[in-house]
Write a structure and sequence with these properties.
The protein is 41% helix and 5% strand. The chain has a three-stranded antiparallel sheet. It has a two-stranded antiparallel sheet with strand order 2-7. A two-stranded antiparallel ribbon has the order 4-5. It is globular, with a radius of gyration of 25 Å. The chain is mainly alpha-helical. Among the domains are: 34-237, Alpha Horseshoe (Serine Threonine Protein Phosphatase 5, Tetratricopeptide repeat); 295-398, no CATH class. A hairpin with a 2-residue loop joins β4 and β5. The protein has 22 helices and nine strands.
Length: 574
């Protein structure tokens, strides 16, 4: 009797014990409903805010790869600024690591959604569309940085070691995948207008279209990109417009972020609403995360508590100073890009301030106390009037606007010029951006059928002044082929020349590459460029872990001259 009672008791407990622990989910128990997949979407967005994606290194590596910025600390980022990073430098692996975390989450969700989009509900279409966009964004960055990443697009691939240890893709295969993801995302996502409140901070079909055009341009597919960019301008993917105040693109707070000019931006909590714990890696998670970025810490002047690592180039400053507005004043974009003292700023915005601390002609601020440098104001609070110093670490709450409508206009002008030569339409698109800054209109007659000259205007005047010290210049130098043309390489050597000095009176001076080697304070980042190192090497530790993976052109210091997708525009004097 006792045995029977005991067996009956055990049997009656079976159904009560057969439960899933919500804190120990597996791939078999998680992701079978909309709610859990929505959690994955949130996780993927969180991963693009990590150190190796956009919170610091993933953003600033491309900034210092460009010719608008130099390494004022002469320590941190040094090999990446000098374009000769060894494959043993672990910093270069952080972007690889963090973007693959993002891809992993995206692949899991996309695989759960299935291949037939026609059977998906509107909610599921939005889920899949966002994950396709974020995976496309991940591979956009991986290909632009590492040239030959591993392509993994099905979560089931991870079930075997052969799938886990993938091989390199070719450069073309990687860009094909990026284009495919963005193109499909365009068909699944709503516009920012149709998405309403939901769309604020999320990927929309406008964001996917904008990045699709960018990906097409990486391989000089100008006709295809132009059609997409025209559709964005025409409102097919929602309404976008330039903000009247350029500075509104670089301020913290709901009054400015996710504005009418922004196609896509990375969401960070305003400083006053953050937690206390820095999350530097995807596995260093905390319920009290700050949820801010450290780009400001890298840009911030040492005297204001910043890490004083990166400074604007003298070339960029002189470019701003070379053209006044129609009213005879300075280009307002200079105020928001470079933190210099200018007499004219006394009555402009927050005046001559550096983190609310007044600057004077006799007391300018430099980035680094040892090596000088022009402080970068963009994506920092140097000019916002909010804080009196840099709060270092992952604390800056300014959303990083990764694609703005001004980029659509200038890219459309570039594509139009490539396809049809200088046209009034191309000039009109450029003038929209110039008019916002108060600059005089360009005239078609000034370019007299010379596509090379209009390209020069776009590449080395309009884009640097509009996007100076933002992510993307390094991608541009690669896609334009500037490293593999003698006159273009010489040009970026000129742009990348800077003075290392603690004499604050000299940091604004125009400098000449011809004096490098004569004046011991002068240096050019591009003098140390090694062929193939326009990309970053795949970290040796990663190669050791994966026997199927090989190094890229940077690992081998091999030329990419034969991999250009079209002729390089010659330098034209404007």
């Amino acid at each position: 009797m006792a045995v029977l009672v005991g067996l009956g008791t055990l049997a009656s407990c079976d159904s009560k014990l057969d439960v899933s622990n919500p804190n120990q989910q597996t791939t078999a128990t998680f992701g079978n409903d909309v709610e859990s997949l929505e959690e994955n979407v949130i996780a993927a967005y969180n991963h693009i805010r990590m150190e190796g994606t956009y919170a610091r290194v993933g953003y600033t590596l491309d900034v210092c790869r460009g010719d608008e910025v130099w390494n004022s600390s002469q320590v941190w980022y040094m090999p990446f600024d000098d374009l000769n990073a060894p494959f043993t430098d672990e910093i270069g692996q952080w972007s690889w690591r963090d973007w693959y975390y993002t891809i992993n989450v995206c692949n899991y969700t996309i695989t759960r959604c299935g291949e037939d989009n026609s059977v998906l509900s509107e909610t599921m279409k939005r889920i899949k569309g966002q994950m396709l966009f974020l995976r496309g964004l991940a591979y956009y960055n991986l290909t632009g940085y590492y040239q030959n990443p591993i392509l993994i697009t099905d979560y089931n691939t991870y079930s075997t070691l052969d799938g886990l240890y993938g091989t390199n893709s070719t450069y073309d295969e990687a860009w094909d995948q990026v284009e495919k993801d963005f193109a499909e995302a365009m068909t699944l996502l709503p516009s920012r207008d149709a998405g309403g409140q939901w769309a604020l901070g999320r990927a929309t079909n406008g964001a996917a279209a904008g990045y699709y055009a960018r990906a097409l341009m990486m391989r000089h597919k100008y006709s295809e990109a132009l059609a997409v960019l025209k559709d964005i301008i025409g409102g097919k993917y929602g309404h976008y417009e330039l903000m009247k105040n350029y500075g509104d693109n670089f301020r913290e707070g709901s009054a400015y972020e996710n504005n009418a000019e922004s196609l896509f931006e990375i969401q960070y909590l305003d400083y006053g609403s953050q937690g206390t714990d820095d999350e530097w890696t995807p596995v260093n998670t905390s319920p009290n995360a700050t949820q801010g970025h450290a780009v400001e810490s890298n840009f911030g002047p040492g005297d204001m508590g910043g890490w004083a690592d990166l400074s604007a180039s003298p070339w960029l400053y002189q470019l701003f100073k070379s053209e006044k507005t129609t009213s005879g004043s300075l280009d307002p974009r200079l105020y928001w890009t470079i933190g210099t003292y200018e007499p004219e700023w006394d009555g402009f915005e927050y005046g001559n301030v550096c983190y609310t601390v007044p600057m004077t002609a006799d007391a300018p601020v430099v980035t680094n106390n040892n090596n000088g440098g022009l402080p970068i104001a963009k994506n920092t609070n140097l000019r916002t009037g909010l804080y009196d110093k840099v709060v270092t670490g992952l604390h800056c709450g300014i959303n990083l606007r990764m694609m703005r409508y001004s980029d659509v206009l200038l890219r459309a002008a570039e594509c139009e010029n490539e396809v049809n030569g200088p046209t009034q339409q191309a000039i009109d698109w450029i003038n929209q951006v110039r008019n916002r800054a108060g600059l005089a209109d360009l005239k078609l007659a000034d370019f007299s059928g010379n596509a090379d000259k209009l390209f020069e205007q776009i590449a080395n005047v309009e884009r640097p002044k509009e996007f100076g010290c933002e992510f993307g210049r390094g991608f541009d130098l690669v896609r334009w082929g500037f490293f593999y043309s003698a006159d273009r390489l010489q040009q970026i050597k000129e742009h990348g020349t800077f003075r290392r000095t603690n004499d604050k009176t000299r940091v604004k001076e125009a400098v000449s590459y011809s004096e490098v080697g004569v004046d011991p304070e002068l240096k050019s980042s591009y003098d140390s460029w090694i062929q193939g190192h326009e990309f970053f090497p795949i970290y040796q530790g990663t190669l050791n872990d994966n026997p199927n993976l090989q190094g890229n052109s940077a690992n081998k210091s091999e030329s990419n001259a034969d991999k250009l997708y079209g002729p390089v525009h010659p330098v034209v004097k404007l």
